[in-house]
Amino acid sequence: MQLKDFYTVNDLLVDDAVTTAQITINKDHDIFKGHFPGNPVTPGVCMMQIIKELTEEVVGKKLFMQSSSNIKFMAIINPEKTPDLEIQLNITETETGYKVKNTTRFEDTVALKLSSSYTEKQ
Questions:
Q1: Of 18, 73, 87, 88, which is most buried with the most CB atoms under 10 A?
Q2: Could you report the per-residue pLDDT of 26-39, keeping only the tens digit for each?
Q3: What is the distance between the alpha carbons of residues 86 and 10, in angstroms, rounded to a whole number?
Q4: For residue 76, what are the domain limits?
Q5: Are 92 and 102 in contact (CB under 8 A)?
Q6: pLDDT tens-digit profile of 36-53?
Q7: Tell me, what's the pLDDT at 17?
Q8: Rounded to whole angstroms, how far apart are CA atoms 61 and 53?
């Protein structure tokens, strides 16, 4: 985990087509002291890191993000109000690595959608 104690994986269900993770963001993590004091917002780059780490766990390999596209931050993830997230990953193996399509939700709200390509870390 790149950010120690930033989140906890509560459940990870790996299916043939879609992997679903239930995670909880640690609202007391130091990152929220600066992002932003009194109004914490989960940084988008941290969400992208979580997606990479979950993908690594599913495929059993260390990965390097090659590219990301169609990144859509659709709702603010405030760890004090909505720390529990559902992260869906559609992971496809390619000739050069893996492609991942992600949808992240809290309650009935879609917070993030993105597509990423990863190569195996050397």
A1: 87
A2: 999 999 999 999 99
A3: 10
A4: 7-120
A5: no
A6: 999 999 999 999 999 999
A7: 83
A8: 10
CB contact set of 84 (below 8 Å; sequence gap of 6+) = 10, 22, 23, 24, 25, 106
- DSSP string of 29-50, one letter each residue: -THHHHS-TTS----HHHHHHH
State how far the Cα of 33 lies from the Cα of 88, in Å rounded to an integer.
28
- Domain contains 2: no
Please enumerate in sequence order all residues whose Cβ is within 8 A of that of 92, keeping only pairs 6 or more positions apart, or say none. 98, 99, 100
Q: Total structural domains in the chain?
A: 1
Cβ–Cβ < 8 Å for 119, 66: yes
The CATH number of whichever domain residue 100 belongs to comes to 3.10.129.10
